[in-house]
Amino acid sequence: EIVAEVAAFFTPKRLAGKRVLITAGPTFEPIDPVRGITNISSGKMGFALARACADAGAEATLVAGPVAQATPRGVTRIDVQTALQMRDAVMRNVLAANVFIGVAAVADYRPATAADHKMKKAGGDGLTIELVQNPDILAEVASLPNPPFCVGFAAESQNLDEYAATKRAKKRVPLLVGNLVQDGMGGDDNRVVLFDDSGRHEVPHGPKDAVAEAIVEHLAGMLA
Amino acid sequence: EIVAEVAAFFTPKRLAGKRVLITAGPTFEPIDPVRGITNISSGKMGFALARACADAGAEATLVAGPVAQATPRGVTRIDVQTALQMRDAVMRNVLAANVFIGVAAVADYRPATAADHKMKKAGGDGLTIELVQNPDILAEVASLPNPPFCVGFAAESQNLDEYAATKRAKKRVPLLVGNLVQDGMGGDDNRVVLFDDSGRHEVPHGPKDAVAEAIVEHLAGMLA
């Protein structure tokens, strides 16, 4: 903790005066009062980015899905469960933000209806869950009349460059951070590639805190 | 930790010589490499019971789904993800056990097929997931030719007494611990009711460690 404070003190304040809004973690989409659909996101990358932004002098607000992570020093945290709650929290805070970084692994789909009471096992063998699409928070933010500078994340299990380029174009975000699921999701380390108008920039494999600092460095350069 | 060791030292060894196999936590049933169906079980109750059994002198083995809990001192831990993996781990260890306590909130259903690669959002609005039923681990253990003494858990959101009695009869377990989801699941405290041949026994509301000790006390009485 002391080491972290000293390191933060010596970090150049390249995001001073910037308000950064970040989402992190998975979302949990209820099937009934106890069950739900979620994903293996640990929230570590988003929390590391919130910390790196705060260390770089930004006013950082973190909208977090259900994760077991400590709030970084100096970061304002808003806890949510579902994609719809995350969208609401983002929309209430995005107008004040200069930068939006969507790190959360937001569930693309949610059950069409959540049962009020715990579903009982039926006699039969199978069951079907109807899912409906969740809002695309990053795309909504990027489509605002006066959008903040938007940074997206793409976690893929294959064809990273192709998917990342497509996602960046479709959502119209200036900076997209791509990573292979097998490199990062759930773990302590990550290896990412940054995609922007000038091309493809590899960040060396390392602890998520170091990767987050490299992303913030690149971001600060684009904002300068 | 020192307090815990002192408390353990003074705990009567009412389960001395008993081998207890316990399941804890949720299971995670993959939809694809990152998504899955799970539940809000924290694993706290199962871990508290493993600790209480070990403190009471038992040789405790804990089969745990994905949770962020520290292994209690003196407990052997086996980590699993899915219901099928939990069933395998239980079946490999149950023949040596005198007591089986199924605390895990095992998913009743799993996706019929898990995609090898992360599913991409389709153009359309909806999606359907086909689910198939998972094995009922507690019922399988209770149906073994020479079953260990079986303790089941029932977490319900309503009609606790009725569901618990039905579950105890159907699975043929001598002791069933019932709790209302809203009282316990995910939290630090719990309030449970024990159902056995002699009727219904309320355990006072309290921290999960204290509730676990009361359950072990009752269990030891039944084994004596």
TrEMBL record, chains A, B:
Names of required cofactors: Mg(2+); FMN
The free-text note explaining how the cofactor binds reads: Binds 1 FMN per subunit.
Which parts of the sequence are annotated with region: Phosphopantothenate--cysteine ligase?
20-224
| Keyword annotations from UniProtKB, A to Z | Decarboxylase, Flavoprotein, FMN, Ligase, Lyase, Magnesium, Metal-binding, Multifunctional enzyme
Give the pathway.
Cofactor biosynthesis; coenzyme A biosynthesis; CoA from (R)-pantothenate: step 3/5; Cofactor biosynthesis; coenzyme A biosynthesis; CoA from (R)-pantothenate: step 2/5
Please give one Gene Ontology molecular function term for this protein: phosphopantothenoylcysteine decarboxylase activity
Identify the residues that the record assigns to the DNA/pantothenate metabolism flavoprotein C-terminal domain, covering every copy.
15-220
The EC number(s) this enzyme carries: 4.1.1.36, 6.3.2.5
Recorded family membership: In the N-terminal section; belongs to the HFCD (homo-oligomeric flavin containing Cys decarboxylase) superfamily. In the C-terminal section; belongs to the PPC synthetase family.
Parent-record interval covered? 172 to 395 of 395
Q: Which organism is it from?
A: Niveibacterium microcysteis
Q: Which purpose does this protein serve, as stated in its record?
A: Catalyzes two steps in the biosynthesis of coenzyme A. In the first step cysteine is conjugated to 4'-phosphopantothenate to form 4-phosphopantothenoylcysteine, in the latter compound is decarboxylated to form 4'-phosphopantotheine.
Amino-acid positions noted as binding CTP in the UniProt annotation, renumbered to this chain:
D108, K118, P135, D136, I137, L138, F153, K167, K171
Q: What is this protein called?
A: Coenzyme A biosynthesis bifunctional protein CoaBC
